[in-house]
Amino acid sequence: MPEKDKYAAQKKYLATRKKMSVWVDADKYERFKAAVKENGESVYGLINRYIDDYLEKHES
Predict the structure, then answer these.
(1) Spacing of C-alpha 44 from chain mean position
(2) What's the domain count of the chain?
(3) pLDDT for position 60
(4) Domain range holding 57?
(5) What percentage of the chain has pLDDT greater than the value 90?
(6) Is the CB of residue 46 less than 8 Å from the CB of residue 36?
(7) CA 17, chain centre distance (Å)
(8) What is the rounded CA–CA span in Å between residue 35 and residue 9?
(9) For residue 3, is it within any domain?
(10) Using 50, 70 and 90 to split pLDDT, how confident is the model at 28?
(11) What is the end-to-end Cα distance of the chain in Å, rounded?
(12) Between the CA of residue 52 and those of 4, 10, 21, 48, what are the distances in Å?
């Protein structure tokens, strides 16, 4: 009997996503991460919200 893939749902979800990597100065990253956390947010959430806002303002 084939073993069920316990990550099947996660793989399906991630297949609809793209990963973005950005290189920044290490000190700047740590300061940004701390400031975001201090405001009760996550880096992931903040960047995604920025992308949404940018697209809303600049897409035709």
Answers:
(1) 4
(2) 1
(3) 78
(4) 25-60
(5) 92
(6) yes
(7) 10
(8) 33
(9) no
(10) very high
(11) 52
(12) 36, 23, 17, 6
